[in-house]
């Protein structure tokens, strides 16, 4: 056989022997992903079926249940802590040890959920139900889905013997949704050494925005609004219901709420939202793209602004929002109400304080009979709100951004990563205030017209949950393997 033919045959043999290796590796990876998805489902089910509401739930039960999984997986006792200021509100902190080549990364997520009444739901909110391609249950969007994914990722890494280049710290905490004992705040103030990190990945929220099941953009949380509750109160002398008078506390309060409903805080852009809409204008088509361009002009196009205000997920980042969420009044069926109260919940643009918004509410209501007081997270009510403001976005760390862009491209080819301002509020405000650069990252896709967090029949797509699970593992591994 001639040397050229021998060389050609040798090359073919080598290629033939090497060909199965990639297929075998792909099959092994798929099998590992499938096992991780089964574990994530198991953890999600367990967490959803532990009631962690503020009223009657117990976050400690969920923290202990998850901690046991880490103990069973061989995590040292010294690297697992269940602690907090309240027996019902303890937090879980777990550390996967690395080589310490780099400072740690902190993953945060909350275990508590918003109240849910069985009579309002079509399913039991505290049972994980799978139907029509969705998982239903309180916390499936906010945010026991993310808790399950982060826990699964660390357990998978431990099982694989993966040694990260930095410690990975997971903190699953209490009272993000409100209550006496916010876990992230408590940990920072009392046990900073347990969670100190170079940067923070906050899984609260859904980065993949989709339409009719088709992913459109990956939103990297770069900043967020500030949360604020306000109590509106009207009191008067009351009296017999057979002798109606104009000074009815309920009517007076209702008139104020109607005035608030008609009021709109000014449209405002910051460096994050301006960049976001510039990118969205390039990605969108037709009228929507034109509207994004329209609000970037000076002055903004009023009609474009009105159209975008009709999209809830967009409207929330255009201005500060305040809405009435609770109402109570009267003391007897046959008496004029002597007192009526309402809770108004505000999500405040960065740069504006909670006290500034309280003063604006007083101006809008324009009624000396309505008092406006601030309600703290622990329920304490005061005549003045704090001067707390949103924090400016951190510099976009290359260690976060480049691996994120690569992981997103590998999972959703062609999808762009765009810095985004969360319209809600999260525990990121505490980590940001503590000087820990915080980024919102989640691989779960939610349709913009199917946001059900805090609502009835909360749900997450089964396929979306599993894709998010695989994505987060790949991304976290990429930023800790260097």
Walk me through what this model shows.
This protein is α/β, with parallel strands linked by helices and 482 residues long. It has two domains: 30-224 and 391-480, Aminopeptidase; 226-382, Alpha-Beta Plaits (2-Layer Sandwich), CATH 3.30.70. Helix content is 39%, strand content 21%. It contains 15 helices and 20 strands. It has helices spanning 3-18, 20-48, 59-72, 144-160, 183-190, 192-195, 249-262, 271-283, 286-295, 302-309, 312-315, 354-365, 398-411, 428-433, 462-480, and strands at residues 80-83, 91-96, 105-110, 129-131, 134-136, 168-173, 199-202, 208-211, 214-224, 226-235, 239-240, 321-329, 335-336, 339-348, 370-375, 381-382, 417-422, 438-440, 445-447, 459-461. The strands form five sheets. Strands 1-2-6-3-7-18 form a six-stranded mixed sheet, with helices on both faces. A hairpin with a 5-residue loop joins β15 and β16. α2 packs across α4 (144-160). The longest helix has 29 residues, at 20-48. The protein is globular, with a radius of gyration of 26 Å. 40% of the residues are buried. The model is unreliable at 4-19 (pLDDT under 50).
């Amino acid at each position: 056989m001639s040397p050229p033919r021998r060389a050609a045959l040798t090359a073919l043999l080598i290629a033939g022997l090497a060909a199965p290796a990639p297929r075998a590796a792909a099959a092994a990876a798929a099998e590992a992903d499938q096992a991780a998805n089964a574990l994530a489902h198991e953890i999600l089910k367990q967490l959803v079926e532990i009631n962690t509401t503020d009223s009657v739930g117990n976050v400690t039960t969920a923290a202990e249940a998850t901690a046991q999984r880490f103990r069973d997986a061989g995590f040292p006792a010294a690297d697992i802590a269940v602690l907090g200021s309240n027996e019902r509100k303890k937090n879980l902190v777990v550390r996967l040890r690395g080589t310490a080549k780099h400072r740690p990364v902190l993953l945060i997520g909350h275990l508590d959920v918003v109240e849910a009444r069985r009579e309002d739901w079509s399913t039991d909110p505290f049972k994980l139900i799978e139907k029509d391609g969705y998982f239903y249950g309180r916390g499936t969007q906010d945010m026991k889905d993310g808790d399950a994914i982060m826990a699964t990722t660390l357990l998978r890494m431990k099982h694989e013997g993966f040694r990260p280049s930095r410690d990975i710290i997971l903190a699953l905490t209490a009272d993000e949704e409100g209550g006496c004992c916010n876990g992230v705040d408590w940990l920072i103030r009392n046990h900073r050494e347990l969670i100190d990190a170079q940067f923070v990945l906050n899984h609260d929220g859904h980065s993949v925005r989709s339409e009719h099941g088709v992913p459109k953009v990956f939103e990297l949380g770069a900043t967020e609004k500030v949360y604020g509750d306000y109590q509106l109160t009207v009191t008067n002398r009351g009296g017999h219901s057979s002798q109606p008078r104009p000074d009815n506390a309920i009517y007076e309060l209702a008139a104020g709420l109607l005035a608030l409903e008609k009021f709109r805080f000014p449209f405002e852009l910051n460096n994050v939202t301006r960049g976001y809409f510039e990118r969205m204008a390039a990605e969108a088509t037709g009228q929507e793209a034109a509207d994004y361009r329209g609000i970037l002009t000076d002055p903004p196009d009023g009609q474009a602004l009105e159209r975008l205000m009709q999209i809830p997920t967009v409207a929330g980042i255009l201005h500060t929002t305040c809405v009435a969420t609770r109402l109570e009044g009267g003391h007897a069926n046959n008496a004029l109400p002597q007192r009526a109260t309402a809770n108004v919940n505000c999500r405040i643009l960065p740069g504006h304080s909670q006290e500034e918004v309280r003063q604006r509410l007083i101006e809008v209501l324009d009624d000396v009979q309505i008092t406006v007081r601030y309600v703290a997270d622990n329920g304490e009510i005061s005549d003045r709100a704090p001067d707390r403001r949103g924090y400016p976005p951190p510099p976009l760390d290359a260690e976060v951004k480049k691996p994120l862009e690569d992981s997103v491209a590998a999972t959703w080819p062609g999808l762009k990563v765009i810095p985004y301002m969360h319209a809600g509020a999260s525990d990121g405000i505490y980590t940001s205030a503590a000087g820990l650069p915080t980024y919102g990252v989640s691989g779960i896709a939610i349709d913009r017209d199917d946001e059900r967090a805090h609502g009835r029949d909360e749900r997450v797509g089964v396929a979306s949950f599993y894709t998010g699970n695989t994505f987060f593992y790949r991304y976290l591994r990429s930023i800790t393997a260097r």
